[in-house]
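Check my protein:
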Amino acid sequence: MIQLELSVASWWWIALLATAVYLCVLVPHMPTPEYRLRTALSPAPMVLLGVASYALKHWEPTTALAMYTSAVLVLPLGAVGHRKKLAQRLMQAKEAGESEDETWPPAMLAQTLLFAAVMMTAYFLIKP
């Protein structure tokens, strides 16, 4: 395990930067205002999970912030290169009245899973 020895303040800045990356990469490419709003609000449950883990599981603040940062970066990293296709598939599903559950392009799903594995490995290697 690698000890980064970052302060809580540093982790707050990293978490804010990760949230900004999430918002800048994903929100502008959503095809409708409804999708943009839902995408912009989706970090909120991750924040609540981090706060709950801090309060109920007695995690250190740095641990909760590092986990949040890892989780919030997975989607934008997985979406890079696939945002246009995702927007097209979301609109096709909406126009056809179909579920959005299967709108992710397979390559985007694979890339997202790869980055999830990378981020979780990094989290456990540098676990604050």
